[in-house]
Structure formats: C-alpha cells, structure tokens
C-alpha cells in the first residue's frame, strides 16, 4: 500500500463536485487535514483516507493535476503588470502585500523596505506557488532539540500576552529570540540579553541587505529579528517562541528551523467584544497598552484575521481561537508538550 501522506491545502466536499464519478464514493476533507493517499493508480481520482481519523474508509479525491486545473480556471492567472493585480496588491499593502487572492496560481509579493528614517519603499519578491497537496512526513523528536513555535495572528489578538504567559510559566524552556533594536539602551539593560542595541543607520543597512527575517517600527525605533538569533535559541535547547508578521513566514518556513506554525484566531465578533471588554483588554500602541478596543478595532482584527487566513493558511499546522486566555495558554503548552514527545508532520522536503 502507498505510504504517501499529504497535507490538503483546500476544502473538499464530494457533494459539491460535479465531476466526481460517484458522489457517495468521495471523501470530504478540510484544508490542513493530513491525507493518506492509498492509491494514485488513476491520476484523475486518487483514493485516500484521513490520517488519524480512526479506521475510516478510503474515498475518492481529485488528483493533483485535476485540482490544479480547476483552481487555474477559478482564478485567472495574473501578470505582474495587469491593473487588476496592482489594485489587489495596493489593497494588501498594509500587511506587506500578502493578500493577493490565494490560489494555486503564481503570485508576486510586495515587501516593504525601510530605506531611511522610516520611509518605506516597495519591492517585489519571487513568485510563490501553492499546490493543492503538499507531501508530508512524520518527524520524530530528538532529545533537547525542539521545533520552534511560530504564532501568527492579527494585531491585538493576544500574541504578546500569550508569549509572556508561556515564558512566565516555563522560563528558560520557552524563549524568544534576542531582537535587534535602534532604541536607546536603558541603564538596567545588557545588550544581547533581550535586545541587541544597534545604531539606526546600521540597522537600516542590515534591513536593506535582507539580514533580518522580520522587522518593524515602534515609537520611531526599529526592531528586527535575524535567522541567526532564532537558530541560537534552538541550539540552546529551548523552545523558541516567535510572533512575526505574516510576510516573514516564507523565510521562516524552512528546513533549517522546522517551525510549527499556529494561527491565533479571534472568536466571532460578539464573543470577541464580550471577552475583551470583560477583561478590560487594551490595544498596544507605540509599545504601551493604552486604548480600550472599540467596535471598529474588533472588526479590523476580524478582517485582518480573514486576510491572513486566506493568504497564509498553507503554512498553518494548527489554528487556535483565542477566546478564553487561560484555555489558549493551556492548549499552547499541550501542543508544545506533544511536539517534544510525539512525532509531528512536516513537509517531506525538510527531511530530505
Ligand atoms: N483571550 C483573551 N481574552 C481577553 N483579553 C485578552 C485575551 N487575549 C489577549 N487579551 C488582551 O488583549 C489585549 C491585546 O493583546 P496583545 O497586546 O497581547 O495582542 P497582540 O496580538 O500582541 O497585539 P500586537 O500584534 O498589536 O502587538 C491585551 O490587553 C491582552 O491582555
């Protein structure tokens, strides 16, 4: 029997499929499910079962080529010069252009680059292709070497708070990488502990030469994280916790790091508003939590979460809805424990 396992990058319901020869023989699955491909004898209709779904029967699913063809006709391939592409990319500008329509088509990605004194320039990155199925293999944990955990989510969803809670629960075990910053050092701080203090012009040069995988600006000061800073946490034998911007995912989702990506998602509007209001939650601006959330802030958070999910879900290993803070922290600890003790799925190319 075939040993092929894939991660599905789209939702499938045979009931909605006009082409499937027999709807009853089809297997429905969700984006992110791991599928055991039992047979690829027929290139158009593979047979698969859901991995970890108990002794479920195998069913028909569209083969890779069929699905790619379908996706290609759903969203017409776009050239970088076409006005429609430009419009869409400009709408996605705020989050670094990750929000062009996600499909199995080629996409260009705009990135913001700091050129001087906070001015932003734009550039394009090589195209990215998202396949309908990604080959995955089980990775067996090694003692003392932990997969770093990446938390992705819209601003305000609670990633900083979650990182702080994890660090205070198991300090030394969970660790965030040292961040480079152009802000002045306080007398109590030691460079290289939490922050590496660097002159602004040096940071700008390093950002422009792509030394950092993630960079941002708060209160007029630059902050950035490099791949070396993240790898040094892994080499220390700690569980690295990283909460980068979505556009950093492409550079972080590599064999060198083998990260486990968790999407921190807000609950639906009413639950979000109720929970955050009861907790007197505050928006972080310029590095300080000051303003309380307004309805528009909740709407913006939900809208951004949708956009991140649309454009980045192929990177997600797991989605956690951050409704009850304590439950989310417990679930994160549980995931970290499982990653340390049990095999986990990752792209096969990372293990070749
Ligand atoms: N599940 C939750 N229930 C209630 N309040 C929460 C929850 N999670 C986080 N908060 C509160 O929401 C506010 C914003 O959280 P936080 O600053 O951690 O978000 P963030 O995702 O790091 O934001 P940013 O990306 O903008 O830095 C804080 O006041 C925090 O205490």
Set down the secondary structure blueprint:
Elements: E1 5-8, E2 34-39, E3 45-50, E4 59-62, H1 64-74, H2 83-91, E5 107-114, E6 120-128, E7 133-139, E8 149-152, H3 159-169, E9 174-175, E10 179-181, E11 195-197, H4 200-208, E12 212-218, E13 221-226, H5 227-235, E14 239-242, H6 249-252, E15 260-265, H7 269-278, E16 282-285, E17 288-292, H8 295-312, E18 318-321, H9 325-341, E19 344-347
Parallel strand pairs: 8-14, 8-15, 9-14, 10-11, 15-18
Antiparallel strand pairs: 1-2, 1-7, 2-3, 3-4, 5-6, 7-19, 10-13, 12-13, 16-17
Bound molecules: adenosine-5'-triphosphate (ATP).
What does this structure look like?
With 352 residues, this protein is of the alpha/beta class. The chain folds into 3 domains: 5-71, Roll (SH3 type barrels), CATH 2.30.30; 76-130, no CATH class; 136-351, 3-Layer(aba) Sandwich (Rossmann fold). The chain has helices at 64-74, 83-91, 159-169, 200-208, 227-235, 249-252, 269-278, 295-312, 325-341, and strands spanning 5-8, 34-39, 45-50, 59-62, 107-114, 120-128, 133-139, 149-152, 174-175, 179-181, 195-197, 212-218, 221-226, 239-242, 260-265, 282-285, 288-292, 318-321, 344-347. It has a 6-stranded antiparallel β-sheet with strand order 4-3-2-1-7-19. A 5-stranded parallel β-sheet has the order 9-14-8-15-18, sandwiched between helices. A 4-stranded mixed β-sheet has the order 11-10-13-12. A hairpin with a 2-residue loop joins strand 16 and strand 17. The radius of gyration is 22 Å and the shape is globular. The protein starts with a strand and ends in a 5-residue tail after the last strand. Mean pLDDT is 86; it is low at 76-126. The protein binds adenosine-5'-triphosphate (ATP). Adenosine-5'-triphosphate binds at residues 153, 155-161, 275-276, 279, 281-282, 284, 289, 322-325, 328. Adenosine-5'-triphosphate binds next to helix 3, helix 7, strand 16 and helix 9.
């Amino acid at each position: 029997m075939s040993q092929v396992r894939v991660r599905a990058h789209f939702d499938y319901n045979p009931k909605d499929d006009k082409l499937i020869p027999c709807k009853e023989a089809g297997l429905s699955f969700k984006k992110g499910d791991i599928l055991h491909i039992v047979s690829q004898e027929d290139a158009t209709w593979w047979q698969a079962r859901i991995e970890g779904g108990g002794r479920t029967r195998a069913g028909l699913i569209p083969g890779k080529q069929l699905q790619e063809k379908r996706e290609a006709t759903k969203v017409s391939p776009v050239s970088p010069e076409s006005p429609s592409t430009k419009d869409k990319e400009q709408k996605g500008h705020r989050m670094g252009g990750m929000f062009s329509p996600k499909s199995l088509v080629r996409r260009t990605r705009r990135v913001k680059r700091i050129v001087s004194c906070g001015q932003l320039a734009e550039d394009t990155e090589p195209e990215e292709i998202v396949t309908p199925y990604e080959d995955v293999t089980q990775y067996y944990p090694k003692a003392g070497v932990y997969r770093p955990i990446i938390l992705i989510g819209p601003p305000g969803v609670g990633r900083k708070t979650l990182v702080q809670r994890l660090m205070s629960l198991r300090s030394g075990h969970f660790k965030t990488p040292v961040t480079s910053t152009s802000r002045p050092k306080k007398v109590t701080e030691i460079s290289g502990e939490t922050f590496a203090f660097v002159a602004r012009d040096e940071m700008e040069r390093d950002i422009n030469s792509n030394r950092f995988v993630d960079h941002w600006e708060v209160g007029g000061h630059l902050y950035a994280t490099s791949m070396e800073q993240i790898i040094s946490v892994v080499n220390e034998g700690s569980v690295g916790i990283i909460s980068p911007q979505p556009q950093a995912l492409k550079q972080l989702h590599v064999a060198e790091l083998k990260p486990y990506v968790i999407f921190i998602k807000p609950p639906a509007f009413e639950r979000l508003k109720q929970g955050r209001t009861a907790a007197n939650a505050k928006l972080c601006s310029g590095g300080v939590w000051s303003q309380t959330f307004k309805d528009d802030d909740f709407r913006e958070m939900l809208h951004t979460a949708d956009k991140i999910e649309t454009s980045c879900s192929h990177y997600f290993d797991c989605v956690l809805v951050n409704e009850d803070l304590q439950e989310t922290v417990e679930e994160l600890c549980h995931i970290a424990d499982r990653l340390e003790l049990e095999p986990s799925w990752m792209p096969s190319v990372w293990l070749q």
